[in-house]
Structures are given as structure tokens and as C-alpha cells.
Amino acid sequence: MTLLMQDEMGEAATSLAPAERERKLAAALAGRSIVLVGMMGAGKSAVGKRLAMRLGLDFRDADTEIEEAAQKSIPEIFASDGEAFFRDKERRVIARLLACDRPIVLATGGGAYMNEETRALIAERGISIWLKAELDVLMRRVRRKPTRPLLQTADPEATLRKLIELRYPTYAHADVTVLSRDVAHDSVLEEVVGALEAHLLKAKPDATP
Ligand SMILES: Nc1ncnc2c1ncn2[C@@H]1O[C@H](COP(=O)(O)OP(=O)(O)O)[C@@H](O)[C@H]1O
Ligand SMILES: O=C(O)C1=C[C@@H](OP(=O)(O)O)[C@@H](O)[C@H](O)C1
Ligand SMILES: [Mg+2]
């Protein structure tokens, strides 16, 4: 009851105690999953895991699921079966994960949202969040590990720049965009939670003229 009165007074959701915030947010999902999209190094896997813990939802990483199903690492899949095979697995794994009854937090691989069928499914079954990051931030993060076959080129920065040009207009279709800045993971997490609240709990526009 108190909650209702607070809402009627237009008080911001951020003034609620954390447990109550999370409960409200999870309820507002109404069964939809939260799907993180964006470039390699944006923090989809790292922030997604934390977001799931925060909201009490299961976390799934499409890349991990593909690796488990294939019993091979992503670089091995690209090397032995090729990118087209990987993309087909990726599309099918995401469809399977989004078909489950309970909502999940799903970290996709950077190329997944480029598939039209996958985008349509995400729009139907989930709330999409584009974790957007500047080129230099992405570069600093992806430089640490040689686990991304698409970046095993003579000039990974130029490759990343080209992928950004190609993909950002499509990522922009996501429901919510959050800047994944060069700050602590938990700060990005807070911004994701805030952006989700703004998207899901925002007041309905007044219909009267
Ligand atoms: N906000 C952040 N601050 C610092 N490092 C981050 C942040 N988000 C992600 N990272 C780091 O960047 C690297 C890539 O993150 P990851 O979650 O694997 O990205 P993605 O799944 O989008 O490719 C990881 O080492 C991760 O810990
Ligand atoms: O951007 C891409 O096409 C890819 C991103 C990777 O996932 P992350 O975005 O989690 O690094 C992984 O799916 C694969 O290496 C291809
Ligand atoms: Mg990832």
C-alpha cells in the first residue's frame, strides 16, 4: 500500500530499498528475458552475470552454451567448422535459451544480434540492452585474451573499427542502450539497472490532450 502511494506521488524507483527495487523490476519483466547485445569486449558476459545475480535470475552465455554443445572452444569451432557453422549454432542456441518458461539474463556473442531472425526473437521474448562502448575501451579489454577469432588479424583495431561501423546501426535497434565506460563493473551494472527501470517502470504518457 505504501508502495502504491509512493508511485502515485511519482517518487523515483531509486528511492526504494534494493530488494524492493529488484522485485519490482523482475515483476515488470512479465516473463521476458534480459538480452545483452553489443561488441566484443563491451562487458556482456561480465555484466550479465552480475545482473542475473542482482535480479535473482539464471544467467546464460550463448558462447558458453555453444562451446559446451560442441565440446570445443570458439576458436576451435571457427578453425575447424568455419564462421557460418558457428553462426548457425549461435542462432539455434539463442532460440533454445529464449524458449524456456522462466526469464533469464542472456549474454549473446557480439555477432548474434546481426541475425534478423535472432533479433526478431529477442524482440518477442526479451528486453534487449545494447552495452555500447568506445573503440579504445573495447580495444583495451579484448587485447587481454586471444579468444576472439575475428580479431586475430594483422590490425585488430582496424578490424574492430570496421565491425563497429557495420554493427552499431543494428545494435541501435535494442530497447535500451547503456554506455559501458571505463569504470568498475558494478558502476556499469548500476547504470543497467537504472536504465531497465526507466524503460520498464516509466510512467505511461498522459492520454488526455
Ligand atoms: N565495466 C568494466 N570495467 C572493466 N573491465 C570490464 C568491464 N566490463 C567488462 N570488463 C572486462 O572486459 C573483458 C571483456 O568483457 P566480457 O564480459 O567478456 O565482454 P563481452 O562478453 O561483451 O565480449 C573482461 O575481462 C571483463 O572483465
Ligand atoms: O562479435 C563476434 O562476432 C563474436 C563475439 C564473441 O563473443 P563476445 O562478444 O562475448 O566476445 C564470440 O561470439 C565470437 O568470437 C564472435
Ligand atoms: Mg561474452
Automatic annotation (TrEMBL):
Pathway: Metabolic intermediate biosynthesis; chorismate biosynthesis; chorismate from D-erythrose 4-phosphate and phosphoenolpyruvate: step 5/7. ATP binds at residues 41-46, 148. Its cofactor is Mg(2+). Its main location: cytoplasm. One of its GO terms (molecular function) is kinase activity. SUPFAM superfamilies: P-loop containing nucleoside triphosphate hydrolases. Substrate binds at residues 63, 87, 110, 167. Keywords: Amino-acid biosynthesis, Aromatic amino acid biosynthesis, ATP-binding, Cytoplasm, Kinase, Magnesium, Metal-binding, Nucleotide-binding, Transferase. It catalyses: shikimate + ATP = 3-phosphoshikimate + ADP + H(+). Monomer. It holds the Pfam family SKI. It is found in: Cytoplasm. Mg(2+) binds at residue 45. Transmembrane segments: none annotated. Binds 1 Mg(2+) ion per subunit. Belongs to the shikimate kinase family. Catalyzes the specific phosphorylation of the 3-hydroxyl group of shikimic acid using ATP as a cosubstrate. It comes from the Bacteria. It comes from Labrys monachus. This is Shikimate kinase.
